């Protein structure tokens, strides 16, 4: 402990009285009032009270600031966490958009393929229809020609038979002539109709 | 009352809290607060081995994780106790209650572990009451919760 001189004591008391300046800090803890000096004891007591009040005030404020700092740190961490989540969500959204774009491309590709297949199928169907038509027309032509040929041969045979036997050939002669004319006319008519149908189908 | 006390902690605001709390509790006459273990290491190197008793603090409080320092509180205690001649009451002041770290601190010669929180004064007061036991090495390792 430090025991101060009378001069210093008086100066300290004077300064405290006139200018309200008091000794403070840890130095106070080593100051000792001379025995019996009640005035200086009171002075030291007052100094300690003021110092304690100031320390307490500063301690409370520092603690408040410390707590605020901690809260700010927590908020900053939370902010960082949310930012990371947002960034992750953004990345996921970008990734999803890319996936959607790829899916759209795939869908478009599939659609184009489906359309191509449909066109091919239509073409095949059209070809099939045409082939069926041609086959039908061929059959009709064949049958018609066979009928014409058959009827022609039959009439011609009958006519030759009548000529060879010397029987009256007038009826058969005119019949053969008429029938042959009709058959030729009909056969050309059939061929003309078929050619017309074929031409119309090709144009369509 | 402790004559000279050293605090090694990277948090400058805690320096103020610690100094004011110690002052209010009449715990120490002078407090030196450092914010890195490197700085403390440099000081201890200067004091030892030429004049190990000169200027050496009576008591040292070391934070466990001293951000921005070359080594943590446990390594600091180990260095002071083994490389710089021991000779002071030394322990950890930290918000951590990690049992593994506490055991490590004990192993390197820490005498106490004070849990750092908003209300530090009651723990420091309790430490102050036990202080003589640490000086005399009669106290066992203690955790102030």
Report on the structure:
- The complex is a heterodimer of chains A (204) and B (145).
- Helices cover 86% and strands 2% of the residues of chain A.
- Chain A is built from 3 helices and 2 strands.
- In chain A, helix 2 (38-165) packs antiparallel against helix 3.
- By secondary structure, chain B is an alpha/beta fold.
- A 6-stranded parallel sheet of chain B has the order 2-1-3-4-5-6, with helices on both faces.
- In chain B, helix 2 runs parallel beside helix 3.
- The interface between A and B is medium-sized, with 16 and 14 residues.
Chart the SSEs and their pairings.
The complex is a heterodimer of chains A (204) and B (145).
Chain A: E1 2-3, H1 6-19, E2 31-32, H2 38-165, H3 170-203
Parallel strand pairs in A: 1-2
Helix pairs in contact in A: 2-3
Chain B: E1 2-8, H1 12-24, E2 28-34, H2 37-47, E3 59-62, H3 73-82, E4 89-94, H4 99-107, E5 112-115, H5 121-135, E6 142-144
Separation of the first and last Cα atoms of chain A = 125 Å
**From N to C, what is the helix and strand string of chain A?**
EHEHH
Instruction: Indicate the mean pLDDT of chain B.
Output: 90
From the spread of the alpha carbons, the general shape of chain B counts as globular
Quaternary structure annotation: heterodimer
Q: Over the alpha carbons, how many angstroms does the gyration radius of chain A reach?
A: 64 Å
Could you give a short account of the major beta sheet of chain B?
6 strands, parallel
**Ranges of chain A with pLDDT <50 over ≥5 residues?**
none
- Examine the secondary-structure arrangement and name the CATH architecture of chain B: 3-Layer(aba) Sandwich
Strand order of the largest sheet of chain B: 2-1-3-4-5-6
CATH level 4 superfamily of chain B: Response regulator
* Count of helix runs of chain B: 5
**Count of separate structural domains of chain B:** 1
Query: First CA to last CA of chain B: what distance?
Result: 22 Å
The CATH class of chain B turns out to be Alpha Beta
Strand arrangement in the largest pleated sheet of chain A: 1-2
Instruction: State the secondary-structure class of chain A.
Output: mainly alpha
